[in-house]
UniProtKB/TrEMBL annotation:
It comes from the Bacteria. This is Aldo/keto reductase. Residues 43-213 form the NADP-dependent oxidoreductase domain. Pfam families: Aldo_ket_red. The lineage of its organism: Bacteria, Bacillati, Cyanobacteriota, Cyanophyceae, Neosynechococcales.
Length: 393
């Protein structure tokens, strides 16, 4: 395993973390007695495998169903001073309820303290403001840190780059969990801001949210060869020293194996990556047209500026991925969270776009005349499924 300094926390962070949202029994909390023995054995085998590999960062969340409860059966048996444990708690309800939720997580995990506490889901300016206000959620976390129950405080986010940068600029957080990978690099300014603030940078779900790379299209596999798509994406992310760790959402002990193969390749990343990057860009230009590929994002309105709240930037992004790399299943999964994902995935689908006048909101786009037809085609290809966030399944 390789390790990187996790910003001002000074923690020695493994470049792969063991994410805790896929090996648990259920997304709903149930008593320990209802958890099948085989499921618990699998979770414990996965954690033991991670620790054997030097993956000392175990990450979970209060919202991950039975994850904390199941981890609480094994974490107390492991050498505490060799682990970095992170859990995340959603800032909601009254501040005292938030404190009680954190203390319940500690009890459930069977630990006296957690190394990293994440305020889970700072996705909007409004949520950030609620965290920052006097006697707010951040102050609760700071009190728990002073009491020795929390070592470092960070936040996780699915929000806009602007909201993430604003949160970083408060200088109140030690680290950030955010999305950034090859197919979605828009949060780079947030990573740059976090680096300037000497914060730890944790990449959320690069395999799943990075394109369902554990079940890639044949086209993507061909373009990424000789690496697998997982290996390419890992190498791409970790070739940037500003990125400290990638979450591996392991469902079983073997899920680490493909990721581990890139550790020895990191010194050669500058030689390995350029040919693959060139093929990916060339394939996108051939499928989408070079002008569209280079300028499709210019002048697009936000969902709040669009009739019926249609999330034009996200829909066009998903259309591009489906068209250029045959990532249709991924695009469908993400598209159908629109209108269903609240502030975790804001904006609406393009249903009924043919009846809307989008000319005013697309006035600054060089492609304004053809975007409505693309939105309609995207809805026909990707829509008509009901998809919820995993925690709501």
């Amino acid at each position: 395993m390789q390790y990187r300094r996790f910003g001002r926390t000074e923690l020695s962070m493994p470049v792969f973390s063991c994410g805790g949202m896929r090996y648990q029994f259920k997304w709903q909390r149930v008593p320990l007695a209802e958890i099948p023995e085989a499921c618990q054995r699998n979770l414990e085998a996965t954690i033991n495998r991670a620790v054997e590999l030097g993956i000392t960062h175990i990450e979970t969340a209060r919202g991950y169903g039975t994850s904390e409860l199941q981890l609480g059966q094994i974490l107390p048996k492991l050498p505490r001073n060799q682990l970095i444990v992170q859990t995340k708690v959603t800032p909601q309800g009254q501040p005292q309820e938030f404190r009680q939720a954190i203390e319940q997580s500690l009890e459930t995990l069977g630990l006296d303290f957690i190394d990293l506490l994440g305020l889970h889901g700072i996705n909007t300016d409004e949520i950030l403001d609620h965290c920052l206000r006097p006697d707010g959620y951040l102050e609760v976390a700071q009190h728990l840190r002073a009491a020795g129950k929390v070592r470092f405080i960070g936040f996780s986010t699915h929000g806009s780059t602007e909201t993430i940068v604003r949160a970083i600029a408060t200088h109140q957080f030690d680290y950030v969990n955010l999305h950034w990978y090859y197919i979605n690099q828009q949060n780079w300014p947030a990573i740059a801001a976090a680096t300037a603030a000497d914060m730890g940078v944790f990449i959320i779900s690069p395999t799943n949210k990075g394109g369902l790379l554990d079940q890639p299209s044949q086209k993507l596999m061909d373009l990424c060869a000789p690496l697998s798509p997982i290996q390419f994406n890992d190498l791409f992310c970790l070739s940037h020293p500003q990125v400290h760790t990638l979450s591996v959402g392991a469902a079983c002990p073997g899920d680490f194996d493909d990721h581990l193969k890139i550790l020895g390749l990191l010194p050669q990343a500058s030689e390995i990556l350029p040919p693959i990057l060139h093929r990916l860009q060339q394939a996108a230009c051939e499928s989408l047209g070079e002008e569209w590929y280079k300028t499709w994002q210019v002048g697009l309105p936000s969902a709040t500026e669009t009739p019926q709240g249609i999330n034009i930037p996200v829909i066009l992004w998903l259309w591009n991925l489906a068209t250029a790399y045959d990532l249709v299943d991924y695009a469908k999964m993400r598209y159908n969270l629109l209108s269903n994902g609240s502030h975790w995935f804001p904006g609406a689908q393009a249903e009924g776009v043919e009846t809307l006048d989008l000319a005013p909101c697309l006035a600054h786009s060089p492609h304004g005349a053809k975007i409505p037809a693309i939105l309609a085609a995207a809805h026909q290809l990707l829509g008509n499924q009901t998809v919820k966030r995993l925690s709501e399944s």
